[in-house]
Amino acid sequence: MNALKLKETLLLVFKWGLICALLGFMSGSASAFLLVSLEWAATIRENHLWIIAFLPLGGLFIGLSYHYYGAVAVKGNNLLLQEYQTPSTKIPLIMAPLVLLGTIITHLFGGSAGREGTAVQMGGAIADQFTSWFKLNQTDRKSIIILGISAGFASVFGTPLAGAIFALEVVYFSKISIQSAILALVVAYFAHFTVAFWQVEHTHYGISSVPDWSLKTLLCVLIVSILFGLAAMLFARSTHYWGALFAKKITYAPLRPMVGGILIAITLYGIGTTKYIGLGVPSIVDSFITPSNYYDFLLKIIFTGFTLGAGFKGGEVTPLFFIGATLGSSLSIVFPLPIALLAGMGFVAVFSGATHTPIACTVMGIELFGLQSGLYIGIACLVAYLASGSVGIYQAQIVKGAKYHLYKKIKIRKPNLF
């Protein structure tokens, strides 16, 4: 009997080890291709600004692609969360190429979006194919979805530990099995090292120094963290608002990104800058060194919310990094804290508030900026999470715990869409 159990255990370890290795390599390779493609798209766009005039046509192409081939996939990250919580249908593999192509088109022609949503959706779509390949049951399918999210997030940002925790936390942390937690960590590192294998590098940020703790310092940290939480709330609400407005005013879905593309292109030519479109990584890097304009974060919220609300594809997290980093950087003029520390705190704190994932964001901050700033990062992520309200960027996400009890009695009024 013991020998039989040992054999079953070894077979189980081998099966899941093989799944993690295959999924990590496939998802990591997809993320590596995405990162290279977005860098190419940004270079082409910045060197040939006339290409922004084709944003409406790019939007129409995205709209038609999802209308005819991705009726289910159009739900994006929310589909992954829904299938984890209430399984009903297999996540279609076509989600991966649709979101990849849509994201590249969005960035190439001048939309404001991120990349993590794309990587997570590709990871989730690839992962769910393993359900039939390995004949997994519903419980194991939940683990597979977590693994897909973990692999996609970890590989696109180069933060494997944060990627694993994000996947667990975003789907409702208290209902995660130990098996899922361990496997999420394993697949995250497989995906992370796959990106390194393809020699694709991630952007590096740094916080060179942190001040000693004092009552004044703590008060400053708490105030700016609340502001980060309010910025996260504004971003989430504006994205949902634009999405609802487009859906109400334009019933034929493929026309929404085309109309949105026309308005974005006209606006870009009017303001004469491309600072607030694409990923905005150069502005994020600069924010750690030079104080940002006080309005930079607000314009990024407007451009990104409008872009995604109109139906263009991409993620929200890198724009959230932009919003948080530039907001923190601008606050360095008012608050006596190092500019790099404020930018770094905002970088992860706004993300924490918008996704309801303070643990993952704290770990990400430590992975990116070092342990010395860990306490500042942790406080910022927690306070921003509590201050950002009950509505996040993922509408299908279940919010529980202290934050749920804090906001459950607050009646949220739907915006008047004219």
From TrEMBL:
<feature type="transmembrane region" description="Helical">
    <location>
        <begin position="297"/>
        <end position="314"/>
    </location>
</feature>
<protein>
    <submittedName>
        <fullName>Chloride channel protein</fullName>
    </submittedName>
</protein>
<dbReference type="GO" id="GO:0016020">
    <property type="term" value="C:membrane"/>
</dbReference>
<keyword id="KW-1133">Transmembrane helix</keyword>
<feature type="transmembrane region" description="Helical">
    <location>
        <begin position="91"/>
        <end position="110"/>
    </location>
</feature>
<keyword id="KW-0812">Transmembrane</keyword>
<feature type="transmembrane region" description="Helical">
    <location>
        <begin position="374"/>
        <end position="394"/>
    </location>
</feature>
<dbReference type="InterPro" id="IPR001807">
    <property type="entry name" value="ClC"/>
</dbReference>
<dbReference type="GO" id="GO:0015108">
    <property type="term" value="F:chloride transmembrane transporter activity"/>
</dbReference>
<dbReference type="InterPro" id="IPR050368">
    <property type="entry name" value="ClC-type_chloride_channel"/>
</dbReference>
<feature type="transmembrane region" description="Helical">
    <location>
        <begin position="321"/>
        <end position="354"/>
    </location>
</feature>
<feature type="transmembrane region" description="Helical">
    <location>
        <begin position="215"/>
        <end position="236"/>
    </location>
</feature>
<feature type="transmembrane region" description="Helical">
    <location>
        <begin position="144"/>
        <end position="168"/>
    </location>
</feature>
<feature type="transmembrane region" description="Helical">
    <location>
        <begin position="180"/>
        <end position="200"/>
    </location>
</feature>
<dbReference type="InterPro" id="IPR014743">
    <property type="entry name" value="Cl-channel_core"/>
</dbReference>
<feature type="transmembrane region" description="Helical">
    <location>
        <begin position="48"/>
        <end position="70"/>
    </location>
</feature>
<feature type="transmembrane region" description="Helical">
    <location>
        <begin position="257"/>
        <end position="277"/>
    </location>
</feature>
<dbReference type="Pfam" id="PF00654">
    <property type="entry name" value="Voltage_CLC"/>
</dbReference>
<keyword id="KW-0472">Membrane</keyword>
